[in-house]
Each structure stands twice: as structure tokens, then as C-alpha cells.
Amino acid sequence: MENRYDIAIIGSGPAGLSAAINAKIRNKSIILFGNKDLSSKLIKASKINNYLGFHDITGEQLKDNFQNHIEKFDINVTNERVNEIYSMGDYFALMVNEICYEAKSIVIATGIEYTKPISGEEEFLGRGVGYCATCDAPLYKDRIVTVIGYNKEAEEEANYVSELASKLYYIPMYEGNYNLRKNIEVVKDKPIEIIGDNKVEKLILKSKEIYTDGVFVLKDSISPAQLVPGLLMEEGHIKVDRSMKTNIKGCFAAGDCIGKPYQYMKAAGEGLVAALSAVSYLDSNNRY
């Protein structure tokens, strides 16, 4: 299958890149989801002195070294947002807009999620709350929809949904000009809570209320627990053992998303361990 891989890696920071390199060295087919510019936090570092072998290096220089390394191994970054991951038993289904990728194992290396869920967001996930507007828009044909956008990319999804919905509200969580269809109502307000009975009925804002049948929350990234249903968390981080195994078979995690200290070298080392564990898991399954 064209979209099926041995290992899918979510995140293009030091942990994700390290996992990708080490999985590729061991001849596994991989797909790496993330930002083609690699780690946005990394390039902000003015000087790094605690990364072994690279003292007095800037974040920009280290990022360039990372880029050269993955290019050497012919590793490409798929610049797409993974909206949901489902464990299907012997493989994982990764939902990316209208495309479904499959992988026998996954490595989560998404870093830290800084945007806290809106009250009610997790409660109504799948019951009126979604993270992929282009995926679920047909469910809201001739209905009232609200899109909470955290970046410019959300505008394209909102425009698409507006072609199907009877009414669409767009709540931008960023400043700038908005490239939206004329039938979309822009609401500059702060979302406070999503409420309803068995499904979404209303969005409470700081200064008003919106009656809506669905709410799409379009962030740069979502928390691992929302990304992978059933994933065990501990104090805001993914719970893993020393081999980077999570509570879900075939699912591994590495980097800032599994806990402190938030350091590049730690993340890279954990990415290595996660990749080796995923390789061992795959090889073990192939013996039978």
C-alpha cells in the first residue's frame, strides 16, 4: 500500500529527527510528519553549550546541521498536520485531512502543547468538536458551524466548510488580515467554554454566546491525549518506560512530550531509544 509504512514519526524536532535517522539506518520505511523548517524553538536559541560536540553553536547553526543530516539520509518532512491517530490492532491509522496513512508503529515526538484545551473541548470531542474541518465538513451540511483558528492555514479550512454550512463563524486567535469568504462572520472574542447535552449546542465567549452545531478547533498541534485516544498521560506528559514504550502496543514517544528536562540532547537520545524500540517491536512481530 502506497501510504503504509513501518514507522510513522510525528514531530520534526530533535527527538523526531533522531528517531527518523535511526529507523532509516535500520532499513525501515518511515514517514516523518512535521514542519519543513524543523524545530521553531531551536532557531531561537542564541547559543548552545550543552549539546555534546557542538559547543558555542547557535540554534540556527544546529538546525542547519540537522537539516544536512536528514538530507544525507534522504529523509523528507511531510509538512502536514496529523489530526487523529487510531490503533487498529496490528497497525495505526493516521488521519491527515482527507488522506489516511497507515503505519505498523508510531513514535510521538510532538514536543510540549502550550495551548490548553477550551473547557468542554475534550468532553465533546467526536460529539460536535473536531480538529479537521475538511474531514468532517460534510457532517455539517446546512448546519451552523464555528471555526476557532490559531493560524492562517485555518482560513482555508473555514472557507471550505462555509460552502456546506448554513452559517459559519470564524474566531481568529491571531492578529492580521483574514482571507475569508464573504459569507463568513468573523468574531473577535475569546472562547471560554463549549457546552451542550449529548452534543455541542453552544459556544460561550467572553462577551457573548454563539449557538452552533459544531466547533472545529484548528491549532498548530493538539495534545497527545487528544491525538491518540487511550494514550496514558502523567502530569501533563506521555507516560513511558525506559524503552520509550507507551501503554499502547506499537506506540512509542520521545522528547519534551514525555517530560523534563526540556533539552535538545535529551530529546535526541530519547528519539534514538524510541526508534530502536520500534524496530525491535517490528522485528519481533515479523518472526511469527
Automatic annotation (TrEMBL):
Domain (FAD/NAD(P)-binding) ranges: 5-271
Origin species: Clostridium omnivorum
Coiled coil feature spans: none
SUPFAM superfamilies assigned: FAD/NAD(P)-binding domain
InterPro entries documented for this protein: FAD/NAD-bd_sf, FAD/NAD-binding_dom, Ferredoxin-NADP_redctase_2
One Pfam family it belongs to: Pyr_redox_2
Keywords: Flavoprotein, Oxidoreductase
Methyltransferase in keyword set: no
Gene from which the chain derives: trxB3_1
Keyword hit for Ion transport: no
The protein's name: Thioredoxin reductase
Top-level taxon in the UniProt lineage: Bacteria
